[in-house]
Protein 1
Amino acid sequence: MEERSTQEVVAETARDVKWICRTLARMEEQGDRTEERLRSLEGWQSEKVGEARRDRQIAAGAGGVVGGAVAIVLQMMGWG
């Protein structure tokens, strides 16, 4: 096994520590970007759920109006 000087070991350790710090910083940035994407998707999903609920309410309202009109016509014709 090759003997290394203390200076070489310290230099290698310093390089390793710098590499670890850069890697951790990149991981943190990726985590932040992932979190931003998740927040965006959650907002989009909430928006879609709201639109679907609004569409159902509009359809129910329209169905009520049509049903009421049919009931009036049937009453006018003597069938209701």
Protein 2
Amino acid sequence: MNISMKVPPSRPVVLCLSGHDPSGGAGLQADIEALLAQGCHAAPTVTALTVQDTQNVRDFRVLDREWVLAQAQAVIADLPVSAVKLGMLGSVEMVDTVIELLLQLPGIPLVCDPVLRAGGGGALGQDDVGFALRERLLPLALIATPNLPEARLLAELPEGSADQCAARLLPHCRHLLITGGHGDENEIHNRLYLRDGSRHDFTCPRLPGSYHGSGCTLASALAGRLALGEELVSAVRSALDYTWRTLRDAEQPGQGQYVPRRLPLDFCG
């Protein structure tokens, strides 16, 4: 008797290039969990190792470019990549390494989360990484997702508003999502700036506390929605809604910031 097995369709693959956070709150673990929650398969490539906890970053080491190239190229040769998510790169050499990889994936949507500082203020890159990101990497991205402090660093506007930062950065990238939450306003304002000059505002209630890994969660969820074929504005809305829910349900496993709960408690894969 021939028994045929029904093979489920493959989940979209998202190639993630980011750092490893041993606390599990941010970095590649955040990417993996957020992408699982979207129904995607995460293919994580480690760009850097960090010494950090839920309070701050103490040190980091960027991996040799040959190791990063080997990891990512093994994935590219084997799996059908539907989207790419970038997180911590840490050095100008790693920016150039990622550009070399992206040239092998023409037409694949790229979500760039320009990770420059940890939530606790610790640096996650050399001082010249922001310039290299803005000038050489953002032009390859479908969308960049900086928070307002990161947008100010990229735009070189220490006191700039979101609108002022967007005006400086949009010539370098197609679309830009600047997230709020770093002031004391009662509502969080997240602003999506499109290359055609239009703007979409998304607001949500401020939640108490501070959070470790929220930016990684948002960017990965957005990459997942794009990998699933969702239109950009709708994908941004879906990713923001999902991220807010993970913060609402966050837990405090250590002595520092809250960690988003990206998967339901009964998740079994």
